[in-house]
Design a protein that fits this description.
2 domains; 4-stranded antiparallel β-sheet; alpha+beta; Apoptosis, Tumor Necrosis Factor Receptor Associated Protein 2, Chain A; 5-stranded antiparallel β-sheet; 9 helices
């Protein structure tokens, strides 16, 4: 989406929000950022002055930031900082999670909160699934198992791939590669979570000719996906060996 189209879309969303919340009007001040500055790629390039202003402007700038996430979810790094109570724009995240009720990001936040307590993870990869059953017919036009989701963690230490295996098994499988785990190996906890159910396995990484790897099967793809619901996330958390 180009800058002009994004600005028009954000302006329309902003005007709708004004109508929904007349009891608490909010408007753009002289120091507020222009709408193109809320493009996801541009947010990471904000100046120190812009970041400081947005942090102090929950009613307009943080709301506009949240509205921009209706097209592109906030990056995982933002969600992690929010979970750690270190995110500088908490009003934006609360608006996205509570007012917009983003199911995927709420699942990610919930899982990150659990992992922060359980594992104090050094590497986390999070990937999203959405309406995968509706993609099956097109996917199986290919003569190989379709790859639905693939994500590398921010630090490059984990690569997670979600597939439906070839017939007749049709399993929901998660493959984990750990190129950055070192010579000692380690363990990975894989969680597949949806609004309907949470599936979890803890895996021991195995050394292969290609590096450290592990895989987990969560049963028949169609059965698992129907239990999880339309929106679901996969979280893989790496833990180094103890001792």
């Amino acid at each position: 989406m180009n800058e002009k189209a994004l600005a028009a879309a954000l302006r329309l969303l902003f005007e709708r929000e004004l109508k929904r919340a007349p009891e608490k009007p909010f408007g753009q001040g002289s120091q507020c950022l222009s709408l193109p500055r809320f493009r996801p790629a541009v947010v990471e390039q904000w100046t120190e002055t812009e970041r400081a202003h947005v942090a102090s402007c929950p009613d307009y700038c943080q709301r506009m930031l949240a509205l921009s996430w209706r097209e592109d979810h906030p990056p995982l790094a933002h969600l992690k900082r929010y979970v750690q109570a270190e995110y500088p724009y908490p009003a934006a995240m609360r608006f996205h999670l509570e007012h917009d009720g983003c199911r995927r990001c709420r699942l990610v936040v919930e899982l990150l909160l659990l992992k922060a307590v359980e594992w104090l993870a050094g590497a986390v990869a999070v990937i999203y699934g959405e309406g995968l059953l509706q993609q099956r017919a097109a996917a199986f036009a290919e003569p190989r198992a379709p790859v639905y989701l693939r994500q590398t963690s921010e630090d490059g230490k984990l690569i997670v791939t979600v597939v439906e295996t070839d017939p007749p098994e049709h399993e929901l499988k998660v493959y984990v590669e750990a190129p950055g785990c070192g010579e000692a190996g380690g363990r990975v906890k894989v969680t597949v979570a949806g609004e309907g159910e949470r599936l979890e396995q803890e895996l021991e990484l195995e050394k292969t000719e290609f590096g450290w790897e592990a895989e987990a099967s969560f049963g028949k793809f169609e059965e698992a996906a129907s239990r999880l619901g339309e929106d679901w996330v996969v979280v893989a958390v790496f833990r180094e060996p103890e001792g």
